[in-house]
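Tutorial handout. Part one gives the primary structure; part two gives the three-dimensional structure as tokens.
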Amino acid sequence: MNQFNDMGMWLSIPGILIIYFAPLLMYVAEMEWVKYIMAVFCAIGLFIFASMLLIVTGIGVFNGAIASLVAVMVICGLASIMNIMWFVVAFRSNNHRSVTVSH
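Part two.
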């Protein structure tokens, strides 16, 4: 079982990043279907981060330890915003995409 700051935790982080990074590379390679797979991952991530934000805030309020949990709340909030922004970027209409000029 992974515990904070042990080798298992640090080995799990690259595994999680690979889960996000592999579909992102396929999306960058213009495989349009991959954005739906990324949408599933981002929806799961959004659910997890939003839930953690609510739970950590509740724990902080009930235990009077909000000040010590601010960093966790900021990270959860920023990660939630990042996932929402990914949805906007991936699913915006073609009219809003920037045009590249070739020389």
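Part three, for discussion. Residues 34-63 form the longest helix (30 residues). Residues 7-92 form one domain.
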